[in-house]
Amino acid sequence: MTIDPLMERYLNHLRVEGGLSRNTIEAYRRDLAKFQGYLHQQRIDPIQRVSAETIRRFLGSLHASQLSQVSSARCLSAVRGWLRYLRQERIISDNPAVDVAAGRRGIRLPKTLSQHEVAALLDLPVHPTPEDQRDRVMLELLYATGLRVSELVSVETAQVNFEVGYLRVTGKGSKQRIVPMGEPARRLLHEYVDLVRPQLLRQRPSRFLFVSRRGRSLTRQAFWKALRLRGQRAGLKKPISPHMLRHSFATHLLGGGADLRSVQSMLGHADIATTQIYTHVERERLKEVHAMFFPRQARRKTK
Prior knowledge:
Blueprint: H1 5-16, H2 22-41, H3 52-64, H4 69-88, H5 115-122, H6 130-145, H7 149-154, E1 160-161, E2 166-170, E3 176-180, H8 183-201, H9 220-233, H10 242-255, H11 260-267, H12 272-293, H13 295-302
Helix pairs in contact: 1-2, 2-4, 3-4, 6-8, 6-10, 10-12, 11-12
């Protein structure tokens, strides 16, 4: 479906003025396309005929299609932002989405790995190939820094400071942040740059840190596949994703006593409320430990 010109205009505004990434823009495009499809189905045109009730019925249709509450709320956010933009541009006189609320969402805790599971991944023997050695370093760095996988594959050699031991990362909204990598990751990355990366590049130039045999930057999909295979080799039963390492990084830091603001800074969260979800993960883990090992609880289970 070709998206409405007014929606395309808004996406262009987000790209140029907001500095949002291509992945974020495409997520907005998909959500707005859902709303456009609903308007077309209900024969609601022009845009001035959209009312608060129209948006509520749209949300109802998303619920009926069994779209999750999280995805429905994201759709509403995209529609609300678009209509706010049209109001600012004086294309519509009022924003009908102002008083429309998404359904109540429960807290959906992020999936994480235990420290034992992370150790199983990191301590897995490495095959004597440049690719497996590269993937091992990427995995260590991902866990040590909490990067998004899109940030990991986009890191350039100029963004690495080996002397101090940090990365300069470009995250969402083209915002840059400094992330420490720790000594084990720094050491492995140094060995990769000196010994492994030249084998992959074969004297071809590349500004990217992690490259394929073709001399190109490694794709997110290629790393995701390598991570899944590594998880299987390590004997992990659950499917592994790069974001689980990011979640584990944050949860393990907070569990070890790190303060919330520091974790927020390292993750690149604009809002500390996004980081606070990991405190819920730690609380749930403590509840499980209490239920398993507290003497009175244990005796009750044995009766």
